[in-house]
Automatic annotation (TrEMBL):
Belongs to the short-chain dehydrogenases/reductases (SDR) family. CDD domains: retinol-DH_like_SDR_c_like. The keyword Repressor does not apply. SUPFAM superfamilies: NAD(P)-binding Rossmann-fold domains. Keywords: Oxidoreductase. This is NAD(P)-binding protein. It comes from the Eukaryota. The keyword Acetylation does not apply. InterPro entries: NAD(P)-bd_dom_sf, SDR_fam. GO terms for molecular function: oxidoreductase activity. It holds the Pfam family adh_short.
């Protein structure tokens, strides 16, 4: 494995003129920082967010901060597979290339609820919708290569060591644990990365680099369901333990933009701050588990999306 001898900095992002990037959940948090830094480097950035108001406000901010006008909002609600399809159709009607897909949006430790398609919210948002989005955009990513896919995971995936997921019961309310289910969903980001890289390689496709990462413990809106704002001590501890979103964006910016990803053939890997190879836990690094999750997700999409043809790899 390779990693830079010096910490990655935003100034290491190469010029991205002519590149097109989609960043899910980039109206706030780490995703918004990524959108700003890529726009600064002349990238065409698509802010893929569920709220038109928040998405448009972010676009206005990013344009003002960077002076880059090539920033656009396209609505994407990851709690609806139909919305994912509509997003892909709109994107493809406007753009004929895609170089960077940053699967960043996420939800953590929310109360139990179901998506429009009857899937548990964290499973639906963090894994299934991003899987579906990626699979539909894959032909374009291949055609536009060299291209990158980054699946934002979390060190929280480590908790799957204590609770091996039963995929058949993943959407059940009985047995739902806000943190347990978050851990599963973040383990799935790593497993999806492993299997997709393997399948691309098996097809002889060498120009799509797919990796996953943990951004660090970052001060963002992710704790909206879990961090109490009423307790001064909890707020103090949270501030001590977390880093600003700018720091949290570095590892995924490395995987999405650094020339080292191609020169060192970094593919199918999991990275941690600051841009270093990480070690997924036993469940999440297993090729067998990656294949099982892939098949499970494919079957789910065939059941939920009429006309779904299956992944092209
Ligand atoms: N912060 C951390 O310490 C930390 C640690 C490990 C991993 N991560 C991962 O880093 C990624 C970014 O998190 P963050 O810290 O930047 O969190 P954040 O500030 O809460 O941002 C999350 C983004 O995801 C969007 N999102 C949530 N549900 C969505 C849906 N159904 N459809 C479309 N967009 C949706 C949110 O949109 P709304 O504003 O509309 O809700 C928001 O834009 C996540 O994948 C998270 O799991 C974060």
């Amino acid at each position: 494995m390779f990693f830079s001898s010096k910490p990655f900095e935003f100034s290491d992002i190469p010029d991205l003129s002519g590149k097109v990037a989609i960043i899910t959940g980039s109206n706030t948090g780490i995703g918004k920082v990524c959108a700003i830094e890529m726009a600064r480097k002349n990238c065409q950035v698509i802010v893929a967010s569920r709220s038109e108001d928040k998405g448009q406000a972010a676009v206005a901010d990013i344009k003002e901060i960077t002076g880059n006008d090539k920033v656009e909002f396209i609505k994407l609600n990851l709690l609806s597979l139909q919305s994912v399809q509509a997003f892909v159709e709109e994107f493809k009607s406007k753009y004929d290339s895609l170089h960077i897909l940053l699967n960043n949006a996420g939800v953590m430790m929310c109360p139990y609820s179901l998506s429009e398609d009857g899937l548990e919210t964290q499973f639906a948002t963090n894994h299934v919708a991003h899987y579906f989005l990626t699979i539909q955009l894959l032909p374009l990513l291949i055609k536009s290569g060299p291209s990158r896919i980054v699946n934002v995971s979390s060190s929280g995936h480590n908790f799957t060591s204590f609770y091996a997921p039963d995929l058949e019961r993943i959407n059940d309310e009985k047995g739902y644990g806000p943190f347990t289910n978050y851990s599963y969903s973040k383990a799935f980001n790593i497993l999806f990365t492993i299997e997709l890289a393997k399948r691309l390689e098996a097809k002889g496709i060498k120009n799509v680099y797919v990796n996953s990462n943990h951004p660090g413990m970052v001060r963002s809106e992710l704790g909206r369901h879990s961090v109490s704002k009423d307790s001064l001590f909890a707020t103090f501890l949270y501030n001590v333990l977390t880093v600003p979103t700018e720091k949290g964006a570095l590892t995924q910016m490395y995987l999405a933009t650094s020339t080292e990803v191609e020169s060192n053939n970094i593919n199918g890997k999991y990275y941690v701050p600051n841009a270093k190879p990480g070690h997924p836990n036993g469940y999440s690094k297993s090729e067998k588990n990656a294949a099982i999750l892939w098949d499970f997700t494919e079957n789910l999409l065939k059941e939920k999306v009429s006309g779904y043809q299956g992944a092209p790899v």
